[in-house]
Design goal:
Blueprint lengths: L13 H8 L19 E5 L6 H17 L2 E5 L7 H13 L4 E4 L4 H13 L4 E4 L10 E4 L2 H15 L4 E7 L5 H17 L3 E8 L4 H14 L3 E6 L2 H13 L8 E5 L3 H9 L4 E5 L1 H16 L7 E3 L2 E5 L6 H4 L5
């Protein structure tokens, strides 16, 4: 039912691009636009800056900026719970009058007035990673999160023998990504696994420590729990941390994650996590800037740009096609 998604033309450049990510700036600070004033300026405001995922997205954006000869800035809030900080970053970006904006919304409703401001100023908006619940963005460059979360649920069901209790630790319930990675998992279970019960869904803001505390509380409340799904890098690492702190046998509690990063990759190799869904973050950054350039040039864009996903586990983590889209 689920098939492996395509990586896209930029996958072959991932290794080189990730070298750039290791040189990325600290925190959510972005360089002021400058340099060649003749270059179109594109401002990218992401959902975060703290996870390795966002550094990989940034590197893909930088790759496209060089290829298409545009200037970009890339910034995000300190955590994926800092909606107000992200909105301020979006306002600051608009104040610079960019030729286009790339935006990954933490809270679509909170961002709506500024998106309307961009539209009124004829500044094209490209959504990335997290879709924006608005008709203002011209396209969205993202993983098919509903299908990807369904793939995670399928592997969870197989791992626990198609019966028992499972729970979710989700990074948020306000972004489209958070909603879809929750709903895709839940809907797959409801449609295909009548003997699996979802006993709890908690939201940890993508923060490792908070997600670990939530996971420990869930495990305490449901000692017969068979599995936990973490919907992004911080959520999944938090769940793994909880399992380690509680000294739970990984054979008795299946952990499945989303995204990559060294901690998740180590957990999979060590047997603490069964596997995870990886996106193509370099491709997301690349396609966002490419779409922005096309929007500036007045070209028609598709409603969505599917940047792909893969399931990986200990048996496939070192395969060449998987290594091309992992980020650490």
């Amino acid at each position: 039912m689920f098939k492996k998604r395509t990586i896209g033309a930029v996958a072959g450049a991932v290794a080189a691009a990730l070298i750039l990510a290791g040189c990325a700036g600290d925190g959510g600070n972005a360089a002021e636009p400058g340099g060649d004033g003749d270059k179109p300026y594109i401002a990218l405001v992401s959902k975060g800056f703290q996870h390795q995922f966002w550094q990989a997205v940034k590197s893909g954006a930088e790759q496209a900026a060089e290829e298409f000869d545009v200037e970009i800035t890339f910034e995000g809030p300190d955590t994926e719970a800092d909606v107000d900080q992200q909105i301020q970053m979006l306002q600051t970006a608009l104040d610079k009058n960019p030729a286009a904006i790339g935006f990954a919304a933490l809270d679509s409703k909170a961002a709506d007035p500024l998106l309307q401001q961009a539209k009124n100023s004829n500044i094209p908006v490209i959504a990335f990673d997290s879709g924006v619940d608005s008709d203002i963005p011209l396209t969205t460059a993202a993983t098919d999160n509903l299908a990807a979360a369904g793939e995670a649920a399928k592997h969870m069901a197989d791992a626990i023998g198609h019966e028992g209790k499972v729970a979710l630790v989700v990074h948020d319930q306000t972004s489209v990504t958070g909603q879809q990675r929750r709903d895709g998992f839940v809907e797959y279970m409801e449609a295909n696994e009548p003997n699996i019960e979802i006993v709890d869904i908690q939201y940890g803001g993508g923060d490792q420590a908070e997600s670990a505390d939530l996971a420990k509380a869930i495990i305490s409340a449901h000692p017969d729990l068979k599995g936990i799904y973490g919907s992004n890098e911080g959520s999944a690492i938090g769940v793994v941390q909880a399992v380690k702190e509680l000294a739970i046998d990984p054979a008795k509690l299946v952990v499945i994650g989303f995204d990559s990063g060294k901690a998740q990759m180590d957990a999979i190799r060590d047997g603490l996590m069964l596997g995870a869904i990886t996106q193509n973050p370099v491709g997301i950054g690349y396609e966002t800037v490419k779409a922005a350039v096309e929007a500036i040039d007045g070209k028609d864009l598709p409603e969505t740009i599917d940047t792909g996903y893969y399931w990986y586990d200990a048996s496939t983590i070192d395969d060449e096609e998987i290594q091309a889209v992992l980020y650490e």
